Amino acid sequence: MSQSFRQHDILEIARDEGKVKVEDLAERFAVSVQTIRRDLSDLAEAGWLERVHGGAVLRSSVANIGYEDRRGINEEAKSAIAAACARDIPDGAALFLGIGTTTEAVAATLLHHRNLMVVTNNINVANILAANPDCEIVLSGGRLRRADGGLVGNLTTTMLEQFRFDIAVIGCSAIAPDGELLDFDFQEVGVSQSIIRRARATWLTADHSKFERNAPVRVASLSEVDRFFTDAGLPDALRQLCQDWGTDVTVSPPA
């Protein structure tokens, strides 16, 4: 079977099943796993699939990728971003850490920080930071989103309005070419917008895959972000916008 026909069939399988695995495809098409990995990379570069650990999932602009699959996307890049972000968080800070796998990576790098207060609407962040005895953890109320351990809704927003944060570390699902930060759940968006209002400084953590995705709900603009931590250079137009807005961009590629 030619490469073009095989990739067409792989895409059809992904549309039917939502996800494809490298080893399963290699067996189905009687080719090597290296060949399948190249096919999936080609389909990802073309914008049809999103690479995850062990395979790929169908890309969508109206539904987010499953949480466990998101954890497997660009893990090394997220670790590099988290390390850069944590280096600039001082001891004794009052932080907000939001929902997302990259913000969870930031939490994992704060285990040796001292005298922190971390407020979060992410149960996973709270569980990670429980290992740091010098970190006071405040978990917001709200409706539990079982898919990823996030707390969202009006109760969450009302509770978080009681705080004033030194730094809010947030994520997003996609970044539009004009610098708009996008997400899938409008209830999470409301929480993020409230947090930006309550923070002295807002930091965004997002890897390069967010430039290739789309989502239906606007969170904010990069113009409202003080610092943006990512793993690859921004597209030229977006880099210029950040310069115009005064948004500091820190690029930390994985080792």
TrEMBL record:
One Pfam family from the record: DeoRC
Tagged with keyword Transcription: yes
Repressor is among the record's keywords: yes
InterPro entries: Carb_Metab_HTH_regulators, DeoR-like_C, DeoR_HTH, NagB/RpiA_transferase-like, WH-like_DNA-bd_sf, WH_DNA-bd_sf
Bilayer-spanning residue ranges: none
Gene3D superfamilies on file: 4-hydroxybutyrate coenzyme like domains, Winged helix-like DNA-binding domain superfamily/Winged helix DNA-binding domain
Chain ranges of the HTH deoR-type domain: 3-58
SMART domains per UniProt: DeoRC (SM01134), HTH_DEOR (SM00420)
An MF annotation (GO) of this entry: DNA-binding transcription factor activity
Keywords, alphabetical: Repressor, Transcription, Transcription regulation
PROSITE patterns per record: HTH_DEOR_2 (PS51000)
Top-rank taxon: Bacteria
PANTHER family documented for this protein: GLYCEROL-3-PHOSPHATE REGULON REPRESSOR, HTH-TYPE TRANSCRIPTIONAL REGULATOR SRLR-RELATED
Protein name: DeoR family transcriptional regulator
